[in-house]
Amino acid sequence: MGFYLSGFYRMLSEQPYFDWPEKLQGRLPWVEIGFGNGEFLEHLAGACPHQPMVGMEVSLTCLDKAARRLHRLGAENVRLLLGDARFLLRECFEDNGVERVFMNFPCPWPKSRHARRRVTSKRFADALAAVLCVGGTFHLVTDEAWYAREAMAFLGEHPALCGRLEDAEASDRPVATKYERKWRALGKDILSVVVEKTAPWRGERLVEEGRALHVEVVFEGDLWQCLRALEGREGHQNEAHWIFREVFLGNDSSVLVQVIANDDGFEQRFFLRAVRRNDRVLMKIDDTATPFRTPAVRFSLEEAARFLTKNLP
Ligand SMILES: C[S@@+](CC[C@H](N)C(=O)[O-])C[C@H]1O[C@@H](n2cnc3c(N)ncnc32)[C@H](O)[C@@H]1O
Q1: Quick check: CB of 84 below 6 Å from ligand 1?
Q2: What is the rounded CA–CA span in Å between residue 175 and residue 104?
Q3: What tens-digit pLDDT sequence spans the chain (313 residues)?
Q4: Are 62 and 38 a contacting pair, CB within 8 Å?
Q5: Packed helices 122-131 and 85-92: angle between N→C axes, nearest 10 degrees
Q6: Is ligand 1 within 6 A of the CB of residue 203?
Q7: Is the CB–ligand 1 distance for residue 127 below 6 Å?
Q8: Is there an atom of ligand 1 within 6 Å of 179 CB?
Q9: 22-197 sits in which CATH class?
């Protein structure tokens, strides 16, 4: 399907991330965060067929529903990404690369112990300020007044952003989403936050482009025995954490090490593959999954290679 991209297969090692048909090139995309069943994207895609759009969603079930909906519509102008929008928005677009960002009824995570899961934060404000073009806008709609105020506080105090809070009734809503219908039926007030980028802003990225992701070390012992000792070991450096899970012996005597890497809350799962080459071992990322090249991914690979050199027989 033309519009479907799984966040962890095609796009990650391949730049540019989006393969827009020629007729859509030259326009900056619109992005929807947390598209749910895809109704809003479907409406926009139909109303503006020449506008490239990107949807981001953490739920695979939602992604499947939205993909079917867009397939039925025959939309060629939408790409769907599976993953955490807090990371994807910052890492998949260049500075000034997006015209509008929409977020309809985000999960509010009201408990303070869950506050880290909220999409809006200081870091999100930085990401928005970076990827929006000057004059570009962010549109948030929510039924939670406190959430709208908190988002306004993060976004409104950013030097490159300027926001306003309004009653969504008064604003121009092109379509009511599933959650909008649900909350309106319960008589809840719907609030809208509109934020404009008013000044240039340079964004920082985690993904390290162009750095080799393999290490070769001298090692002549029993590779499988040595790497099994990695199971359960953890490491961290600044905001990067990683843990080595199970270790498997491949048919070709190479060894696979399962890794969970976490960069400031963004988790990726993948395998390292250790391949023997005479008196050396090549440690690389196995191509069953292509993680973003974040610091946690690189550190885990370097640590596994270092572990071999320290544990020579
Ligand atoms: C309350 S639902 C709203 C769905 C839809 N926008 C609507 O109005 O009907 C929130 C959606 O955001 C998604 N979501 C939550 N956190 C997310 C994140 N960090 N990145 C991307 N999607 C996220 C959830 O999976 C869920 O589908």
Answers
A1: yes
A2: 11
A3: 333 444 333 444 455 678 788 889 889 999 999 999 999 999 999 999 999 999 999 999 999 999 999 999 999 899 999 889 999 999 999 999 999 999 999 999 989 888 888 888 889 999 999 999 999 999 999 999 999 999 998 999 999 999 887 777 655 677 888 998 999 889 888 999 999 999 999 999 998 877 778 999 999 889 999 999 999 999 999 999 999 999 999 888 899 999 999 998 889 999 999 999 989 999 999 988 888 899 999 999 999 999 998 865 5
A4: yes
A5: 30
A6: no
A7: no
A8: yes
A9: alpha beta
Ligand 1 mutation pick, 179, 180, 264, max ligand atoms within 8 A of CB: 179
